[in-house]
Design goal:
Two copies of one chain form a homodimer.
Chain A: E1 4-9, H1 14-26, E2 27-35, H2 41-54, E3 62-66, H3 69-73, H4 103-118, E4 122-124, H5 140-153, E5 161-163, H6 171-180, H7 203-215
Parallel strand pairs in A: 1-2, 1-4, 2-3, 4-5
Helix pairs in contact in A: 1-6, 6-7
Chain lengths: 223, 223
């Protein structure tokens, strides 16, 4: 029996890399990256390519696309250089200014459009609900509602599952899972600010450092 | 009491123009156009601007954005010049090759991202369910599922309705409604193929001609 085909949304960060590793256990991979004007997109694309090489994904199953419109829509420190990336405050209950309005709807929609053309079986996204920055479009109930919209908004014969294998994991568990699946964590990038070295201060760096610390694993990009 | 603010997805075609006219009855307008590699995008943008001028919408509330990724994803005669635009077959039950996979999810997501930044109250889209080409992402149940995803995937304080005022209307009723609301139908464009004159043969031209005929109205773009 031939393997399933999965479109994996791969930013190049820790979570999406481990998501690719999970998908690779049972599926052939088609990898998708979106540049939407985020500050670190050039660095992200480098990680995307390195991870795609690691999993030996053919050129026809790699897609790096641009959607500058999120930059024009604005409203986020990630896409508007006039808004500073704040230092982390992991205990704050509010949604940080790095939230890109409804971003994951764009990412998932893109994955679904490509999956429908490829006749793929699933779209994988590495969203994490609890142990993250509190973005509303990372929640399980959002993903399940969106999956229903996928089912209703594509061709009748199209069946595309929305897979969210990390959604209820802690960041420390994600690190441990990545290690156990031999995911190439050394090729990932998480920092919101810099392109050369992780800043160590933004919320994404802070979440990553805490995760590796709790998992008792040395972060390979810092060694 | 101040008026509501509505983001209207305005392709520049008949349906979206009448949708803008409906929204304008009770809302201030913010108009959004997406160029996604469709053959007639230059002509569409001309119509978008003319309709925006007609409704005296300020520059800050007009947004024309590009998303070439649907062209790269492919799979549709509308975005792939290697696939011919077929002549109309309005009686066929199958989904035509002009279907752009999951396109309306991208359009609505874009409207929602902008609406969240603008603190708008609603996103209007001129989808038509029955009397149209049978695209799955034009159906009421898709729109209602998507509205639920909007509610769950945006900030807790964000409330954005997804308004589909034409969804159960016939094309003839849409023409009549547009006439009664004094919508600038003379500024609209529907043809899938050409940029100068409507081809008169594609499904969009055929649907438009049938609609004006049934409504007993002369199409102003043909006079």
């Amino acid at each position: 029996m031939s393997k399933e085909l999965a479109v994996v949304l791969l930013s190049g960060g820790l979570d999406s890399c481990v998501t690719a590793a999970v998908a690779a256990q049972s599926c052939d991979l088609a990898l998708l990256h979106l540049s939407y004007g985020q500050r670190t997109e050039a660095r992200e694309v480098r990680s995307f390519k390195a991870i795609a090489d690691h999993y030996d994904v053919s050129k026809a199953r790699r897609l790096c696309v641009e959607a500058r419109f999120l930059e024009r829509v604005g409203g986020s420190a990630l896409t508007n250089s006039a808004i500073a990336v704040p230092e982390a405050n992991l205990d704050s209950p509010s949604i940080p200014i790095t939230y890109v309005p409804f971003r994951n709807a764009h990412l998932i929609s893109l994955g679904v459009s490509w999956a429908e053309v490829l006749s793929a079986d699933a779209v994988y996204i590495g969203v994490v609900e609890e142990d993250s920055s509190g973005y509303p479009d990372c929640r399980e109930d959002f993903c399940r509602a969106f999956e229903k919209a996928i089912d209703l908004g594509t061709r009748p014969e199209t069946r595309i599952r929305l897979e969210t294998p990390l959604i209820h994991k802690s960041k420390a568990d994600i690190v441990s899972l990545g290690v156990s699946l031999q995911a190439p964590l050394d090729l990932t990038w998480s920092c919101y600010s810099d392109n050369d070295r992780p800043c160590g201060r933004c919320e994404s760096c802070s979440l990553r450092a805490r995760a590796f610390g709790q998992a008792g694993v040395q972060d390979p990009i810092l060694s």
